[in-house]
Design brief:
- This protein is an alpha/beta fold.
- The chain contains eight helices and seven strands; from the N terminus they run βαβαβαβαβαβαααβ.
- Helix 4 links the parallel strand 4 and strand 5.
- Helix 1 crosses helix 8 and helix 3 packs parallel to helix 4.
- The radius of gyration is 17 Å and the shape is globular.
- Bound molecules: nicotinamide-adenine-dinucleotide.
Length: about 260
Amino acid sequence: MEARMAGRTVVVTGGASGIGAGIAMSLAHEGANVVIADLNLDAANAQAELIRKAGGQAIPARVDVVNRDSVTAGIALAVDTYGKLDCYFNNAGFNKPMKFLDVTEENFDAIMKVNVWGVLVGTQEAAKQFIRQGTPGKIVNTASIAGRTGFPSFAPYSASKASVISLTQAAARALAEYKITVNAFSPGVVSTPLWKTLDKDLAEIGEGDKGFDSMSAGILLGRPAEPEDIAPTALFLASSDSDYITGQTMAIDGGMILV
Ligand code: NAD
């Protein structure tokens, strides 16, 4: 049986850590050429090396998703190295919690810039590359349960992830004529380095009891996710198995949000 991603080139933003690193490893395991596109070049390098040691194909790229030139350079590196682009994961994102009444313009702008503008730019530039190539393409965005329901100390983050769901729908409609599909997945609570910072930040604003442990407590399937729980659905959305799906956001949250 042929590997599901054999010969396909994929860029994963935020691929140096957590969910993105798990997705990158799993894509490489299925035969993909992976570009680890991350703000943190050292970590991207380390993740690419880990993948190569496991027998996969991967290279690092320093990419800042809010900067269009940096995004296009990451895509150009993928194309120069592997010949073409087949799939683009807009996965980089972050959160900086603030109590609702304390949210500042600076906090709002910083979160929206990376989590929303970054996804828009990545989608535009990946789509332009697919159109130049004259090939179909796939774009996969990382949303969140916070985009399905608002959390009081994560207001800009919740708004940003709802925007990721909207952008996924808008892009799916805009790009279908080019045979480009655009989908998203929405994780619940995933054990990654993001939570270490988040738990510390929550404690600093007096909300230490609202962190990883309390968020994990009500999960129907009884535990938070590991990146390995996210990877199979990400792989499905990157592979031809999902060719007839577009504009959708798939929940991978152990049953946290039921709609
Ligand atoms: P993480 O902090 O472990 O990894 C995020 C990576 O993104 C880091 O390597 C970081 O360097 C990179 N990054 C940050 N800003 C960037 C930028 N401007 N340009 C390029 N790279 C940048 O986080 P994670 O938990 O793996 O989160 C990945 C995605 O999943 C994010 O979009 C996050 O919002 C989302 N998410 C996470 C959870 C969770 O529980 N961990 C739940 C739902 C959604």
